[in-house]
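Re: export button greyed out
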Amino acid sequence: MVRKPATLKDVAALANVSRATAARALNSYGYVGDETAQKVQAAAEKLGYRGNRLAQALRSGQLPIVGCILGDIQNPFFARIAHDIEVLARECGHNLVIGSSEEELAQEISLLASLRSLSIRGFIVAPTSQGNNAHLQGLIDENVPLVLIDRVAEGVDCDSVVVDNEGGARKAVEYLIGMGHTRIGLLQDDMRIFTSRERRSGYRSALAAAGIAADDRMVAVSQSTVEHAVDATIRLFSQKSPPTALFTVDSLMTQGALLAFRSMGVSIPHDVSLIGFDDFNLATFTDPQITVVSQPVSEIGRAAARVLFERLAGKDEAPQKIRFETKLIVRGSVSRRSGV
Amino acid sequence: MVRKPATLKDVAALANVSRATAARALNSYGYVGDETAQKVQAAAEKLGYRGNRLAQALRSGQLPIVGCILGDIQNPFFARIAHDIEVLARECGHNLVIGSSEEELAQEISLLASLRSLSIRGFIVAPTSQGNNAHLQGLIDENVPLVLIDRVAEGVDCDSVVVDNEGGARKAVEYLIGMGHTRIGLLQDDMRIFTSRERRSGYRSALAAAGIAADDRMVAVSQSTVEHAVDATIRLFSQKSPPTALFTVDSLMTQGALLAFRSMGVSIPHDVSLIGFDDFNLATFTDPQITVVSQPVSEIGRAAARVLFERLAGKDEAPQKIRFETKLIVRGSVSRRSGV
DNA sequence: AGACGATGTGAGATCGATCTCACATATATT
DNA sequence: AATATATGTGAGATCGATCTCACATCGTCT
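Workaround output, generated via the alternate export path:
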């Protein structure tokens, strides 16, 4: 047997009142007689009336859903953020739609278009691309709240939550330099990605400050997956004079580097020192434990959601640009290098 | 400047036709003159008309969204599943709403109610509870497609995708027994959870088949988080005659056990053998690598989504009960025990 | 007594897209 | 020439909830 969900009309009919009166009773606005209100409540109860959020949304123009477009939910960094956003959204009576851009601009654009046609109230996006942000600008033009996370997009003036990528990377590389390293490798992500660029810039400025010449042979570019990072690391360390230390720009790549070193029989920190951006669960499982620059992952999603809901509540001030600090966590994967 | 999205009415006005004709031209049904169709297309293009899926959904009664209620997106097992579902949903022109029950029945119920009032087309749920499934039965009564994953719910007759938990657990414990272990510990999750019960049952039947008496002191119950698992493991191994081998029922608990052993100075596999249910990325990062019973994680989400979309396409056959096999992956965390 | 405000209710419009139906024309068939 | 049939188009209903407005019916105050 297929029951249809009860509508307001059904409730009104059962309570012997008009739809208007039923609506007043259920949403408590306007004048309603006590007795009438009771009748309506009882009828609603009896029919299991739940209201149709779709119809409400059509009328009000907005669905109580926020959209979230991330690079990849499987990346623990984004998973954590998604979780935090979901919790906060629920507290605010909203649901969360999740989409994964898989770091493809085209995918990001099409997802956004698809979600916009749902009259979703606001978005949290980790933009794939630096330029080409007409789709994001479009949101702003139509006054749809948008919060960027992890990355900012050029020319798009809106709220954002990021970390100090450049400073974090610099801290990491300065630490390596302080430990006597001069041939410092960089394993970085696709240059389209904001964090990758910023972290590389921190790497370079630390080298420059120490008077170490930049050397392209010390830099490997890979996609942000464990598998690609393994290959890139092997390539980087198969040169005749390989780096003595490696800085990796995210946790998946750090893990890839670890696997690569193991397969090459390279011992950490004896043969090579390693330091990664973004802490990860199992950084303390390895022997030695991995030294990392950690970012406050648990803050990012919450901050973004908080800002978004402030906007939804009508806050109309200049965009907030939140930027969290990073922290160097020294463990055991970096060794002092004396002379060459 | 705040632009409003263009409506069909706007397009019709610009093209100098009625709304009905505009709709026909854009959705290509019924008779439309060639010239008229062109005009409408051009007008739609010019206004950037995108259609309002909310209005369409109100009329058709269904929003092109599928809902997904999982235990926790942060668990890599669920993250993987969510990702696979999202990809398949997108291919089918649907979006994905994600909710986390946090293993609380009340949360699961309220989330489901909230999503149902959105007229969402179908659901994929990992049910928290065994009994008390009126909320799930309610979906079936109203003919809303439902696919259960990872767990089944008593008395709810619908599609499901699970793995052979009992068989997998038995394989693991039989392997330990074959390696000469008799004092085999079990680190398990909350008994409310289906997989936890099934895996314990496999553990017990393997012991029974080998004539080993069940011993409650060999069993520790914990929540499925790394932190709780650490504590539970420490308790379990602080007894005067602790187990010589441990079977953990999920990957987070395996990781917790690893950390606990490290902090207790217990060496694997020399002092204690370890085998976990569910493979995880970093099982091969440790030394030794961890022996596990793996489940085909990449199949589960895809299978569930495929079944769901078949239902949405109108398939009306008996519920499919898909059950994947597990595989014992022998690595280095179990050692042979000769005598006691 | 007449007027005014407070209280309670229902009819109907609205949100945007779609679909049925009726009404046109044009072409084909007997 | 008369009737079918094909082809185009628009008016209006519909989905469900909400809101405005008009219309009641009270009581209260001058």
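Chain B has three domains: 1-38, 61-163+297-324, 165-296. The button fix ships in the next patch.
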